[in-house]
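queue> holo job accepted (zinc ion)
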Amino acid sequence: MPSPRYRREMPQRYRLEAGKCKGCGKIFFPPRLICNKCGSQEFEQVVLPENGKIVTFTIIRVAPAQFEAEVPYAIAIVELENGVRITTQVVDCDPEKLDIGNEVKLVFRKIQKEGKTGILLYGYKAVLV
Amino acid sequence: MRDVYVIGCGMTKFGEIWESSFRDLFVEAGLKAIKDAGVDHLDSMYVGTMTSGLFIGQEHVGALMADYLGMAPIPAVRVESACCSGGLAVRMGFLDIASGNSDIVLAGGVEKMNDGADVTFALSTAADQEYECYHGVTFPGLYAMIARAHMHRYGTTRNQLAQVAVKNHFNGSMNPNAQFPRKVTLEQVKSSVLVADPLTVLDSSPVSDGGACVILASEEVAKKLQKPMIKIIGSGVATDSLALDQREDITALNAVKVSAERAFKMAGLKPSDIDLAEVHDCFTIAEICILEELGFAERGKGGLFTEQGHTALTGKIPINTSGGLKSKGHPVGATGAAQVVEIFEQLTGKSGERQIKNAKIGLAQNMGGSGASSVTHIFSLM
Ligand SMILES: [Zn+2]
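queue> job finished
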C-alpha cells in the first residue's frame, strides 16, 4: 500500500475520527463530503465511542494472501454506542464462542503487513469486554 | 424508446477451461451467438468483465474483443459493475438499440479466473477496499454475515440454506454447460468444508472460466430475420453502498429490490406474472434474500419458501433452472449474460430435460459485490 494512501486513512484507523452532519446529525464513518440523508455538505469532526455490540459476524477460514497466516479469524459488524456501524476483526477470543449481541471494545492493533519488506499497517480491532 | 429483442445467444462451457484464453472464451461465445442470430454484422458491442486486470493483467477489453471477433472498427465498450458486469452489458446494449443508435448489438461477458491470480483478493475488490478488505473481510465473509443476521432475525435455518444448493445442483445436473453438473444432498452441503461460518464451500459458487453473449436487435431486424420474438419488456438498474456496514438493514438487498421494481414498472407486471427466473445465487443466502427482494417470497420467508419447494423446477416459480451460479459456475463478468442465455433458451423451448412447459415470461437478476449494484431484466415471448 503506497504510503500516501495509508497516511490518508490514519485519522480514521488510529483515532476513529468520523464526520457528523450539521444538517441532520447523521454520523458518517468514514467521513463523507456530502450527507446521503439530507444533502448537507457541512460536517463537524467527532470521535467514535470505543464500545459497542456485535450485530453479525463470521469466522474467515479462507483468506486473501496477506491474512492467510491468521485463519481462522473472526470478522464482525459492530454497532457502536452512538449507532455507527463498523467492520472489524474480533480478537483475543475463541471465535467459535462469539455471538450476536456480545459487547466489545475497540483497541489499537497491527492489522497487516505490506508484502515482505513493506511497512506495518495499523488500525482498530475489537475485543470482548 | 424503441422495442428491443433478443434474437440469438451463445455461451461456452463454464469451468476450469485450461485450453481457452480470456479472449478465446469471449470470441467462442460471441461467434455462437452471431451464428444463432443469423446476423452478418454488428453495429456495436458491450463486453462485461469484472477485473480482467487482476485476473490476467489485461485491460482495454472492448477493443481487444472487437478485434478478435473480427468486428473492428465497430464501437466496443467494456462494462464493469463487479459480478453484474454481464447484466449491465446487456442493459447498455438494450439502451443502445432503444435509443435508435444501433440496430444489432452484441452484449456479453467473460471472465478468466483460473489463470493463477489470487482469486480471493481479486473478488474482494468489489467490496470497500479501505474499510472492509483492509481488515481481512472476504466475499464469502460478507455473505456469511448476511446469512447469520438473516438466521438470527428471521429464523432461517441451516437446512433452508443448504436446500438452495441441493435444488440448483439438481437443475444444473441437466445442463451440459454447467461446471458442476452433479446432484448434492443436504448432508453434503452442510458437512462440506467451512469457508466463512456458517457458509461452506457447497454454499458458494465456484471459481470459473467462461463467456456468454446475446445478440440484441430492433423490431425491424428481428422480424426480417424471422427469429422467435423475445422482447425485453423490463430493464432496471439500481445501486447501494459498497460496504455492508453502511446499510440500515444488513439482511436487505435494496439495490435488488429497486432494480426489480423499475423492471416490473416498465413491463407493467407483478412478481406473480413471472414464469421462471434466473437470480444471482453467488451464495445460498443470496438466493434466499433475492427471493424476498423480487417479491416472490415474503420478507424473512425466503428460506421457508425454498424449503416448501416453490422454487423447484416443478414449483410455482422455478428459480435458476440453469443450475444458477452455484452449479453452472460463476465466471463473474459472464454470469449476467449467461442468465439471459438461459431465459432465452427457456422461452424458445430449447432447454431439453429442464424445460419449463409453456414458459412465456422470464426474469434475470444479476448482482454486484455484496449487493451494491443490481440489474434486472424481464423478457417476454411475443
Ligand atoms: Zn445530513
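queue> The interface with chain B takes residues 9, 12-13, 30, 55-67, 70, 73, 75-77, 85-89, 100, 111-112, 121, 123, 125 of chain A (CB under 8 Å).
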